[in-house]
């Protein structure tokens, strides 16, 4: 971020060339453009039919992008929120007190967008510490310091993905068929991906991997996003509907499962996209290893167990309608209600290993997780 002028109000849908990804990875979910105070994001709701980058210059636009899931995935929404605070700071010229007050308003706006993925609160807490440290400085210095912190959050996430990818790849057999659920890839992170980072690292280590991507109702992140990014990356990927998982496992067509996470509780329970728990139960029944990959920013040691993780309830329309590009079709009769809990919790007992940038917890228990925790200062 430099001294550029903020772009005035943006029309949604304005096309923008994709910025140079920070990591050299395939896609980055959000990127602060150098020399200008705006953030560019790929509108993930439109994939795979439409690849549209949007430019945001105001924190309100970033908050809206997170809650409407233009940007989604636990690490990605944390990174996006951090950049959102940089944009907010760019509009505050006043005193220390005025700055702190306005930043708190922006923080609150971002914090309430999505409740389950702890990475959002983690990133905002980290930015808040920088805000407190630099509040007394000149406006441009504040923006520069916050920009540096947001970029650090972004680049550290990419490094974490690569580190956990290398650990997880060691447990992926050459020639394996790997099932994944939802999208835990470059789109959902700063780049490279968590679960898909493991798959990428296995591929980069010379292993032949075939991926089955469960479609992930209701928003179809598996069919739309995971299939899209792996296919672009030259990794063999095929989509199955969520309801096919049991039959594929029973027929011996799945060797292992790897998913991402939105929050890992202190006892090792894992919240991830709705449907993950069912896949884990099926994997247990069929003796198939079930692994999770997540950065330490997803681990919430203050949260005792999965029962304490807030589960986001999203609108009924995501279930009653199917979106294709920019149009949507109603698939339910008028007058029938739909349920839409966006996440479920997989008990730690069903998980063989959790890969993080700090190491592997296997079997995943409170004890193996605690061993990876940074020691208190
Ligand atoms: O509702 P979403 O699409 O944000 O949910 C995403 C997931 O559940 C991912 O699996 C999780 O965030 C891990 S992303 C590396």
TrEMBL record:
The active site is at 262 (proton donor). Its EC number is 5.3.1.23. InterPro entries: IF-2B-related, IF-M1Pi, IF_2B-like_C, Initiation_fac_2B_a/b/d, M1Pi_N, NagB/RpiA_transferase-like. The record marks 182 as: Transition state stabilizer. The keyword Cell inner membrane does not apply. Belongs to the EIF-2B alpha/beta/delta subunits family. MtnA subfamily. Catalyzes the interconversion of methylthioribose-1-phosphate (MTR-1-P) into methylthioribulose-1-phosphate (MTRu-1-P). Gene3D superfamilies: translation initiation factor eif-2b, domain 1, Translation initiation factor eif-2b, domain 2. GO terms for molecular function: S-methyl-5-thioribose-1-phosphate isomerase activity. Pfam families: IF-2B. It is an enzyme of class 5 (isomerase). It comes from Pendulispora albinea. This is Methylthioribose-1-phosphate isomerase. Keywords: Amino-acid biosynthesis, Isomerase, Methionine biosynthesis.
């Amino acid at each position: 971020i430099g001294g550029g002028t903020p772009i005035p109000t943006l029309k949604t849908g304005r096309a923008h060339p994709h910025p140079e990804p920070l990591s050299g990875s395939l896609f980055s979910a959000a990127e602060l453009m150098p020399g200008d105070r705006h953030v560019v994001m790929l509108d993930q709701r439109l994939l795979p039919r439409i690849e549209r980058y949007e430019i945001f210059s105001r924190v309100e636009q970033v908050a809206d992008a997170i809650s409407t899931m233009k940007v989604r995935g636990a690490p990605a929404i944390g990174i996006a929120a951090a950049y959102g605070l940089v944009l907010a700071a760019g509009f505050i010229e006043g005193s220390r007190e005025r700055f702190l007050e306005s930043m708190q308003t922006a923080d609150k706006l971002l914090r309430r967008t999505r409740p389950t993925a702890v990475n959002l609160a983690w990133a905002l807490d980290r930015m808040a510490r920088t805000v407190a440290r630099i509040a007394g400085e000149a406006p441009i210095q504040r923006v520069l310091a916050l920009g540096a912190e947001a970029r650090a959050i972004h680049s550290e996430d990419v490094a974490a993905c690569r580190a956990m990818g290398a650990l997880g790849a060691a447990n992926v057999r050459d020639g394996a068929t790997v099932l994944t659920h939802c999208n835990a890839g470059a789109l959902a992170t700063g780049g490279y991906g968590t679960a898909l980072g493991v798959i990428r690292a296995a591929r980069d280590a010379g292993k032949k991997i075939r991926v089955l991507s469960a479609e992930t109702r209701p928003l179809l992140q598996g069919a739309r996003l995971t299939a899209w990014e792996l296919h672009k990356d030259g990794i063999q990927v095929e989509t199955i509907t969520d309801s096919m998982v049991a039959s594929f496992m029973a027929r011996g067509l799945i060797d292992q499962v790897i998913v991402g996470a939105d929050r890992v509780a202190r006892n090792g329970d894992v919240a991830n996209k709705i449907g993950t728990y069912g896949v884990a139960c099926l994997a247990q029944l069929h003796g198939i290893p079930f692994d999770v990959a997540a950065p330490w920013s997803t681990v919430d040691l203050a949260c005792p167990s999965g029962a304490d993780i807030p589960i986001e309830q999203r609108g009924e329309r995501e279930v009653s309608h199917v979106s294709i590009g920019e149009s949507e079709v109603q698939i339910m009769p008028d007058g029938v209600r739909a349920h839409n809990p966006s996440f479920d919790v997989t008990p730690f007992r069903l998980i063989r290993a959790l890969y993080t940038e700090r190491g592997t917890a296997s079997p995943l228990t409170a004890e193996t997780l605690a061993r990876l925790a940074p020691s208190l200062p």
